[in-house]
Here is the input.
Amino acid sequence: MHDRPSRHELADTERLDRLRLIRSENVGPRTFRALLKHFGDARTALEHLPDMARRGGSGAGRICTVEEAKAELAACNRYGVSLVAPGEASYPTRLATIDDAPPLLAVRGALDVLARPMIAIVGSRNASGAGLKFAATLAHDLGDAGFIVISGLARGIDQAAHRATVETGTVAVLAGGHDRIYPPEHEDLLAALLERGAAISEMPLGHVPRARDFPRRNRLISGAALGVVIVEAAHRSGSLITARMAAEQGREVFAVPGSPLDPRAAGTNDLIKQGAALVTCASDIINAVQPIMERPFALEARESDDEPLDFDTDPSERERIVALLGPTPVSLDDLIRMSGLSATIVRTVLLELELAGRLERHGGGLLSLA
Here is the structure.
């Protein structure tokens, strides 16, 4: 595999400011990136948050204080957790390329595995015996071939893949904080895999995972990997969400076929019909990702990162954009077209609305009023 891109380490003051920014109310990964691109550093962005929220039609959201951020960093140090930013050595390179990459990622364990090529294996929590056996075999063979298996530490397929690669290295992506493991019966598994593997999370310590946190976790599983393998998945399962996210992120999607009589295979069989690569052994995956690994890889700027912001927007232009928004999600391109305004103005108003807590983001880049 080609050398990783050159890395740089954050100064302690910038790490503290970035932690304050991402922990402030209504600031998500995309908003964080836009603010950092425009203002140049997190401290300057923090200073402008109140004015931007007011322009969005609300009072300033709560801003994380210096004391709170220092307390979180101290707690992370006590727990053996490092908070790393895209571009730093312990941040998975491919994860840094997704549109909503976490601005700070909490990592723990043998962090060198995060620099190695990863394959995600996910599937049903209520897996069949055959599915569990195949997931373990597939994971073991990928580990022997030098890959790191990444999964979500869930019951069923996830834990089978992790257990099979404890010796070769595996990465667990957590839906909650590092001290709030779900399911709790996998705390021993996590402790074992941290010897040669790692755990990552975008959530702060103390965060108990909620239902909406699991799709957010799934985008990290697919985003860090070269490709995602779905072993068993019923219709409308979380694993199919991971497959969709992988496709949106430009990752390879693999599916293991199953019996048409088993509802746990219905989702994977559908994926194959839709064009996912059929997998019956590890070499199917290795042969597919080998050409990707042979290409030079660099942390390239996203197209949207180059879009400027314009905070001198006329009030009538802001009203025109807000009037086009409603409870039904709409795309950014449609907003630009229907408003007749520049992309710069539309993006700026949307950012202000988000900081005011008035904008909701949906899958596929869709937006609506909260």
Q: What stands out?
A: The two ends are 44 Å apart (CA to CA). The CA atoms of residues 7 and 140 lie 31 Å apart.
